[in-house]
Design brief:
The complex is a heterotrimer. Chain A has helices spanning about 30-40, 175-190, 275-280, and strands at about 15-25, 45-50, 55, 70-75, 80-85, 90-95, 105-110, 120-125, 135-140, 150-155, 165-175, 195, 205, 220-225, 230-235, 250-255, 265-270, 285-290, 300-305. Chain A is mostly beta strands. In chain A, strands 7-6-5-8-9 form a 5-stranded antiparallel beta sheet, with no helix packed on it. A 5-stranded antiparallel beta sheet of chain A has the order 17-16-15-18-19. In chain A, strands 3-2-4-10 form a 4-stranded antiparallel beta sheet, covered by helices on one side. Chain A folds into 2 domains: about 25-160, no CATH class; about 195-305, no CATH class. Chain B has one domain. Chain B is about 25% helix and about 20% strand. Chain B contains 2 helices and 2 strands. In chain B, strands 1-2 form a two-stranded antiparallel sheet. In chain B, a hairpin with a 5-residue loop joins β1 and β2 (about 80-85). The longest helix of chain B has 17 residues, at about 40-55. Chain C is of the alpha/beta class. The longest helix of chain C has 17 residues, at about 335-350. Chain C is globular, with a radius of gyration of 19 Å. Chain C has helices spanning about 25-40, 65-70, 90-100, 120-125, 140-155, 160-175, 190-195, 220-225, 255-270, 275, 285-295, 305-310, 335-350; strands at about 5-10, 50-55, 80, 105-115, 195-200, 200, 210-220, 230-240, 280, 365-370, 375-380. Helices cover about 35% and strands about 20% of the residues of chain C. Chain C has a domain at about 5-120 and about 210-225: Thiolase/Chalcone synthase (Peroxisomal Thiolase, Chain A, domain 1, 3-Layer(aba) Sandwich). The chains are: A mainly beta, B alpha+beta, C alpha/beta. The interface between B and C is small, with 4 and 3 residues.
């Protein structure tokens, strides 16, 4: 058995990556109507026909009975505080609007933590700007002694909002660890591509890893793989999509570098794209072409170019 | 809340169990406070309970024969999973 | 010894490109109402619920099972979420199967869904790739699927023409499927001339993006008669995975699919799949996959898939109809697709397929899968 690889932690700043994409979310009929109405300073709930249960804000399905038939009702602007806490962004409370059997979360305004008690009466404070969202309400303020409001039937509700535009942007910092650490350090510093030997010593894993995927045996020592290799699969990309990093058409390829046993994914370029199908096929020989800049990632290789008539 | 729901103490008396006074070692591992890899935390509890039953001397426990393991999920703790183990 | 498990009720939404009249919860509720009605049960009769949905990034709701469980009145029942790429719906059904087979439940409701219209699908799927090693090159699953097809093309003869025949067959079959939403016949020429998106994959090799949900009720033998006198008995079911980037990985044959098929065939007493199945439902994210499945499932030998499709044997009039429902070409709400294939297989052997019934079908083969084309499941259903 081969000795354990001579790997040690390398101090590399984590890889920063952001996942950002747009959405068009669908709220459904009850919430869609709630959002359309809240912009007009009207709070809408559902009163379920069979169970009589009232839920504010409006929901499509009764949380108690599963009933799906309901009428819309207009909620009063007062309620009771059933829970509260202080966060970095201010006070948050659980509010039970008068007439509802359920609580929802919103901000508490015009108060400090010391002012609040479970069971306090509260009242809506509308935001100065209208919005088709919960933020049309700025929050709930303490309203001691406010009389209990009543829920009223509602028949002329606005058309429900069918889609809500939304953006998600999630930021990550991925730790390299000792294997990716050395791999990318060598790519950046020495323009060498390093794998680790497979447990039987005959091949190399690229990217390098601690154990064999299949046998879970420890992998071996570090070994440099060549910068030439063979295409084993390819596709010509014409599709355009959100988040795409290059302009079509381009060639997506799985390449096995000489000395490695596993594939890397990259582009093959520097050829007449109108003849791509003939020139680039499983078995085509390619060579790495490096960019001038060094970032310590796979992108330091600009692309792979086709080698004519070369044997490995 | 969880200790009371599990029936280890009477309702409203969960505090009585602190310091392992109820004859039950509670979170000898420290629970989620010292380390909370959220999605793994429940399984860590199971793994800890197993170690405590099979190698109690590592935790300063004498001869525990059964354990109850609890995990929860959701921003309102809507989901709960409970397991009991015995040696 | 595992207990008998059968599918006793099925339901699905009329899948569509986009449903703006319901939220994810509403979509789930529709499928569940239909499955429970089909099983002549209410939610009170259900012991446990499995919610299967695609990655959270698809529709930006984390832990959606906690939301949709309320919509189906499953409060206070065991509810778990299963996610497994394209195999999600199948894996959800497998989890339900284990609960009954292991004696922990008598009746389990499995609902699988996706609302793909809500997000940026290719981008979400690209997070399947390692952020350090290849993600910047990702083209959803289309990029590597096309590349793997190219790798099989020369050696196995999976030509563009053969894949085009799959598109023609499945799109034609979808027309009669009341739940499919893409209902337009195409010719081989039209497929070959359609825009290459990730060549060799072209526009008409690609399934639609869909919003849809599907649900089944699984039952133990003891309770099956309360729902139906003709349950679809699960004679075997398995789900296997291979490393996506191991030296041993073959692009020519799907090893996890072949292993799953071997194990499930042994459990179900299948020695000649071509002859012993009356109908087959497979989950083809692109047409090229269906050719590969013919070989890995043993419906023909490696290298003979093109001949099999060309012979007409896998058409609805053939001796081994594959995807009489239209497969993914008719509707593809990814998280539900695996469960839809199980439903279509079950409906066939239960004799209640609508518009697409293969006469006398008694035994069905179902395939599902996803990930890096490295998660593969097989089930055999019989009535």
């Amino acid at each position: 058995m081969l000795p354990k690889p001579d790997t040690f932690p390398i101090d590399m700043a984590p890889l920063k990556s952001t996942l950002a994409m747009p959405y068009t979310l669908t709220p459904g009929r009850a919430v869609g109507t709630f959002l359309a109405e809240i912009a007009k300073k009207r709070i809408v709930g559902s009163k379920f026909k069979k169970s009589g249960v009232v839920v504010i804000p409006a929901q499509d399905f009764c949380p108690v009975s599963g009933d799906k038939e309901f009428d819309f009702v207009e909620a009063p602007s007062t309620g009771t505080l059933t829970g509260f806490t202080e966060t970095e962004s201010g006070l948050i409370g659980m509010i039970r609007i008068d007439g509802s059997e359920f609580d929802f979360v919103h901000r508490i305004v015009n108060a400090t933590l010391a002012d609040l008690h479970i069971g306090d009466r509260v009242e809506v404070v509308w935001a100065s700007e209208t919005a088709q969202s919960m933020l049309a309400i700025a929050g709930f303020k303490p309203a001691p002694g406010a009389p209990i409001g009543v829920v009223r039937p509602l028949s002329d509700t606005a058309e429900p909002i069918e889609t809500i535009p939304y953006e998600l942007a999630l930021h990550y910092e991925h730790a390299f660890g000792p294997y990716y650490g050395r791999l990318f350090d060598e790519i950046k510093t020495n323009r060498r591509i390093m794998g680790v030997r497979t447990p039987d010593g005959l091949g190399a894993f690229l990217p390098p890893r601690e154990v064999c995927d299949v046998t879970h045996l420890p992998t071996g020592t570090w070994v440099e793989v060549k910068q030439t290799g063979t295409v084993r699969a390819m596709s010509i990309i014409n599709l355009r999509f959100v988040g795409q990093t290059q302009e079509p058409p381009y060639i997506y390829a799985e390449i096995i570098l000489d000395g490695a046993s596993t594939r890397l994914i990259h582009n093959v370029a520097g050829l007449d794209m109108s003849r791509a199908k003939e020139i680039v096929k499983p078995g085509t020989r390619v060579r790495a072409v490096w960019r001038d800049q060094r970032t310590g990632s796979l992108a330091d290789i600009s692309h792979f170019e086709v080698i004519d008539n070369e044997k490995s | 809340m969880v200790l009371e729901a599990l029936g280890l103490s009477r309702s409203g008396r969960g505090m009585d169990l602190l310091g392992d006074k109820g004859g039950v070692a509670i979170n000898a591992s420290g629970g989620a406070l010292p380390a909370d890899p959220i999605m793994a935390t429940g399984l860590v509890r199971l793994s800890e309970a197993t170690r405590q039953l099979t190698t109690p001397q590592l935790y300063g426990l004498s001869a525990p024969s059964s354990a109850i393991v609890h995990g929860a999920g959701g921003v309102g703790m809507q989901s709960h999973c409970v397991l009991t183990l015995e040696v | 010894m595992a207990r008998w498990v059968g599918i006793v009720g099925v339901g699905q939404t009329h899948h569509s490109r986009r449903r703006t009249d319901v939220s994810q919860a509403g979509l789930v509720r529709e499928a569940v109402d239909r499955a429970l009605a089909d099983a002549k049960l209410t939610i009170e009769d259900i012991d446990s619920v499995i919610v299967a949905s695609g990655p959270v990034l698809f529709a930006a709701v984390n832990q959606p099972e906690k939301w949709v469980a309320d919509a189906i009145n499953a409060s206070m029942k065991p509810v778990v979420r299963i996610t497994s790429g394209g195999g999600t719906g199948f894996a959800g059904a497998l989890a339900g199967y284990y609960q009954i087979a292991g004696g922990l439940a008598e009746r389990v409701l499995v609902v699988a869904y996706d609302k793909l219209s809500e997000g940026a699908l290719q981008y979400s799927i690209s997070t399947l790739y390692d952020p350090f090693w290849g993600r910047e090159f990702a083209v959803g699953i289309m990029g590597f699927s096309a590349a793997y097809w190219r790798a099989r093309m020369d050696v196995l003869g999976h030509t563009e023409e053969a894949a085009a025949m799959v598109a023609v067959k499945n799109r034609r079959n979808a027309i009669k499927n009341p739940y499919a939403h893409v209902k337009k016949e195409v010719t081989v020429e039209e497929v070959l001339k359609s825009k290459p998106l990730a060549w060799p994959i072209k526009q008409l090799d690609v399934p639609p993006i869909s919003d849809g949900a599907a649900a089944i009720v699984l039952s133990s033998e003891k309770f099956a008669a309360k729902s139906t006198d003709r349950p679809a008995f699960i004679q075997g079911m398995g789900y296997f995975c291979e490393a996506d980037n191991a030296p041993e990985r073959s692009l020519l044959v799907s090893e996890p699919l072949a292993i799953a098929a071997r194990r499930v065939y042994r459990a179900a007493g299948i020695t000649n799949p071509r002859r012993q199945f009356d109908v087959v439902e497979v989950q083809e994210p692109y047409t090229c996959f269906e050719l590969s499945y013919y070989e890995s499932l043993g419906l023909c030998s490696p290298g003979e898939a093109a001949a099999l499709i060309a012979s007409g044997a896998t058409a609805v009039e053939g001796d081994i109809p594959v995807n009489p429902s239209g497969g993914c070409a008719g509707a593809n709400p990814i998280g539900a697709a695996g469960l839809i294939r199980l439903i279509e297989g079950a409906a066939q052997v239960m004799g209640k397929s609508e518009g697409i019934q293969i006469k006398g079908a008694q035994r069905a083969l179902v395939q599902s899968g996803g990930g890096w084309a490295n998660l593969r499941g097989v089930a055999v259903l019989a009535a």
